[in-house]
Design a protein that fits this description.
Radius of gyration of chain A: 27 Å
Structural class of chain A: alpha+beta
Number of helices of chain B: 8
Number of domains of chain A: 2
Helix content of chain B: 55-70%
CATH architecture of the largest domain in chain B: Orthogonal Bundle
Order of helices and strands of chain A: HHHHHEEEEEEEE
Radius of gyration of chain B: 17 Å
Largest interface: A-B, 44 and 62 residues
Oligomer: heterodimer
Number of strands of chain A: 8
Strand content of chain B: under 5%
Shape of chain A: elongated
Strand content of chain A: 25-35%
Strand order of the largest sheet of chain A: 1-2-3-6
CATH superfamily of the largest domain in chain B: RNA polymerase sigma factor, region 2, helix turn helix motif
Structural class of chain B: mainly alpha
Number of strands of chain B: 0
Largest sheet of chain A: 4 strands, antiparallel
Order of helices and strands of chain B: HHHHHHHH
Helix content of chain A: 25-40%
Chain lengths: ~210, ~180
């Protein structure tokens, strides 16, 4: 079947979008099996691409529409933050954030973390089996009329409130995957965020798998 | 590729590889580096701004979803992106009702023209030199077929020849071009 001239023309026709319907399907099927034909097609596609139009700045809003389609509602600061934490980079670039590495302790705590920021110094021991976070607050001075609120963000999920920051144990909701989860503190209205979702970006954040 | 001064092909290849792994930061960077080029591609084929914007959205959705398979056909990274944009724009154009197709009364200038935004000037010069060896109307038909994404039926109408004649012309031109380019 491989008349070289015929294939040269066929690959060119395909690269130009001139093959339609069954002819295009047959060609695509051959592409998956014939490396020479793939090379011929790639050569055509590269050669013809020089005919393409000048770049033209795309209007605003297209990328956010793409993201909305692929990833759901617009990214919040929390999503971005989670991205940073998961990547293990960039946290330092968020000047407001201070993170301290996680250490596995010989005690029964699965994770022992510290979060510090201006007017904030908290230690938290996380016990996976007991689904408990033991919080020890050294400093927690929220601005007047505000409270510090503690959150856990399981990997890829929305933040879950662990209540206004205070000394003592906090029970985690069932079914939370701790590896990759993030603990964070935000400044919220007195008594905590009224709607159960953070209303400000975190002042401190630490990942539970950063050890 | 206007952005080529800022973002070279290796960077784009790296971005695509990272997008394939679900890296949204890389996806943002890839969009910044390539959306103007791909918008140009979409708009020229569709010749309708709102539709080109929709096509561009669809293009980046597909790029995100298909990034893992971009190497399959051996295309260079920028060519792959252009091909995704082209295919989406062509599909949309051909799904339009036939009466909305605009067949120009006057043939567009077959010369190098203002679309001379070469991925790289050497390749453009090489292609133009090879096109120049074809009969002028054949060279123009090849360029139009690609640039405007015309079907054989449309080309036959524009050039006033039977469809089979059109296809014979074009295939003969492609064979000569391939020989010249290789």
């Amino acid at each position: 079947m491989a008349d070289p001239n015929n294939d040269a023309a066929l690959a060119g026709e395909y690269a130009m979008g001139l093959l339609q319907g069954a002819e295009a399907r047959v060609f695509e099927d051959r592409l998956t099996r014939e490396p020479d034909l793939r090379a011929l097609y790639a050569a055509w596609a590269d050669d013809l691409a020089v005919l393409e139009a000048d770049p033209l700045p795309a209007p605003d809003g297209i990328k956010s529409a793409v993201d909305m389609h692929l990833f759901g509602p617009p990214e919040t600061l929390w999503d971005k933050l989670r991205g940073f934490v998961v990547l293990g980079t960039g946290v330092a670039a968020l000047a407001v954030l201070v993170t301290v590495g996680v250490q596995f302790l010989p005690s029964s705590a699965d994770y022992s973390v510290q979060m510090t920021a201006d007017n904030l110094d908290v230690e938290a021991d996380v016990f996976a089996d007991d689904r408990t976070v033991r919080v020890a607050v050294a400093t927690s001075q929220a601005p007047d009329g505000k409270d510090h609120e503690l959150w856990i963000i399981p990997a890829g999920q929305a933040p879950i409130s662990l209540g206004v920051l205070k000394d003592g144990p906090v029970i985690l909701p069932a079914g939370i995957a701790l590896p990759g989860a993030v603990l964070a503190v935000t400044v919220e209205a007195q008594g905590g965020s009224p709607n159960g979702v953070p209303t400000t970006s975190p002042i401190a954040v630490v990942s539970l798998d950063a050890a | 590729m206007g952005e080529s001064a800022l973002t070279d092909l290796a960077d784009i290849e790296d971005m695509i590889a990272r997008v394939a792994l679900g890296d949204r930061v890389a996806f943002d960077a890839l969009y910044s580096a390539t959306s103007a080029k791909l918008f140009g591609v979409s708009l020229r084929i569709l010749n309708d701004r709102p539709e080109a914007e929709e096509a561009l959205q669809e293009t980046y959705v597909r790029i995100w979803n298909k990034a893992a398979s971009y190497k399959v056909n051996g295309l260079s990274p920028m060519t792959w992106l252009i091909t995704v944009a082209r295919n989406i724009a062509i599909d949309r154009k051909r799904k339009r009702k036939p009466d909305t197709l605009e067949v120009p009364d006057v043939l567009p200038d077959p010369g190098p023209g203002p679309e001379d935004a070469a991925i790289n000037a050497d390749n453009r010069t090489r292609l133009d030199a090879c096109l120049a060896k074809l009969p002028a109307d054949h060279a123009a038909a090849v360029k139009q077929a690609y640039i405007e994404a015309y079907t054989y039926a449309e080309l036959a109408e524009i050039y006033g020849v039977p469809l089979n004649t059109m296809r014979t012309w074009l295939r003969r031109s492609l064979i000569a071009l391939r020989e010249c380019l290789s």
